[in-house]
Amino acid sequence: MNQTNEQGGNKFRSGFVAIIGRPNVGKSTLMNHLIGQKIAIMSDKPQTTRNKIHGVYTTNDTQIVFLDTPGIHKPQSKLGNYMMQTAESALKEVEAALFLVDVSEGIGGGDRFIIEQLKKVKTPVFLVMNKIDKIEPEQLLPMIAQYNELYSFAEIVPISALNGNNVTTLLEQLTRYLPEGPQYYPADQITDHPEQFVCAELIREKILHMTREEVPHSIAVAIEDMRVQENGVVYIGAVIFVERDSQKGIIIGKRGDFLKEVGKQARKDIEALLGSRTFLELWVKVKKDWRNQERVLKDLGFRHD
Ligand SMILES: Nc1nc2c(ncn2[C@@H]2O[C@H](COP(=O)(O)OP(=O)(O)OP(=O)(O)O)[C@@H](O)[C@H]2O)c(=O)[nH]1
User: Fold this and answer.
1) Of the candidates 230, 237, 239, which has an alpha carbon nearest to the alpha carbon of residue 270?
2) Percent with pLDDT over 90 in the chain
3) CA of 39 to the centre of ligand 1 (A)
4) In ligand 1, which atom is closest to the CA atom of 21?
5) N or C: which end of the chain has fewer CB within 10 A?
6) What ipTM was predicted for this assembly?
7) Which molecular function term from Gene Ontology is one that the record holds (predicted)?
């Protein structure tokens, strides 16, 4: 990707930004406003991902990758403790963190807990005071003073994620904290791993249901491409890997009928999952003995941890 733009002017800036905040403070609303797409899908899934991508904001000279740091909430279990540690290291790896609070509620125990975690890292933290449409302007200053006593924020930005008030200012300020860097994701990519994994599983499930014994578990599905097209339709390109030519024949079916049916059924589920229209393209490839090949497994997204 070009580091400088065509005119040889501004350098491309990019970086990762963590979004932190108690439930319901408006993280998804802010993301949806910034990125203008329905990206906060799967937010109700178990918090197992270390660095879930919440959204990618791309312009001609900037790319901001927003990350969720789920583990920062008060740990309630062993897993929670583990997540806390990963949240802490995730915080060290980002250029900045946005700490969202709901100004229509006072500072709560949850907020104080998060602030304690933020003190452990040197990452610049923005206090993003959301839902200003719900209060009177004069209520804001005393609240800012209260937060300032708890932590030395890099910037304090009052916004309304719902109506977009001051969100541009937030973006402008954030961009100043980004180093020169590459465009990490294609401009139209909106999601990362978790959704892709579930889509692959949905496709695999349909095949297993429809084939029963003939094609046992010797198939794997890899999502090679997932992006939102200009018309708003999500394009998904997926490859179905089988071990033998005979299996390839079964999966494709007579005149491609079988594959078409797999696509039809999987698309229905995927559309329900993503909440948007989907164009699903499927290929079938033979990869002999893929189950024993370490590299292939890695390519397909399997992990050992
Ligand atoms: N009035 C007002 N409501 C807002 C604003 N931002 C978000 N909300 C509302 O607050 C509620 C929670 O917003 P979400 O974006 O789902 O909050 P979240 O932080 O993503 O919540 P979790 O996914 O539970 O962590 C929704 O009903 C939003 O419409 C705002 O700026 N003003």
Assistant:
1) 237
2) 33
3) 14
4) 19
5) C
6) 0.97
7) small ribosomal subunit rRNA binding
Residue carrying structure tokens 């406003």:
33
Q: Answer whether 180's CB lies under 8 Å from 12's CB.
A: yes
181 vs 293, higher pLDDT: 181
Asked whether the beta carbons of 256 and 270 are under 8 A apart, the reply is: no
Q: Which residues 6+ apart lie within 8 Å of 152 measured at CB?
A: none
The CA-to-CA distance between both ends of the chain, in Å, stands at 32
301/224 Cα distance (integer angstroms): 11
- Residue 44 pLDDT exceeds 70: no
Does the predicted model carry a pTM greater than 0.90?
Answer: no
Binding-site residues for GTP: 21-28, 68-72, 130-133
**Are 14 and 184 a contacting pair, CB within 8 Å?**
yes
Q: What is the pLDDT at residue 305?
A: 37
Residue 32 CA, closest ligand 1 atom number: 15
What is the pLDDT at residue 114?
86
Angle between helices 78-92 and 109-118 (to 10 degrees): 50
Closest residue by Cα to residue 143 from 104, 88, 95, 98: 104
Displacement of CA 5 from its chain's centroid (Å) = 27
Spacing, Cα 161 to ligand 1 middle (Å): 8
Contact between residue 301 and residue 197 where contact means Cβ atoms under 8 Å apart: yes
Q: How far is the CA of 47 from the centre of ligand 1 (A)?
A: 19
Yes or no: domain 13-175 corresponds to CATH 3.10.620.30: no
Q: Which residue's alpha carbon is nearest to atom 13 within ligand 1?
A: 26
Question: CATH number for the 193-299 domain, one of 3.40.50.300, 3.30.300.20, 3.50.4.10, 3.30.390.50?
Answer: 3.30.300.20
Strands (E), the chain: 13-20, 53-58, 62-68, 96-102, 125-130, 155-158, 220-228, 234-242, 278-286
Domain extents in the chain: 13-175, 193-299
pLDDT at 133: 96
CA distance 75 to 95: 25
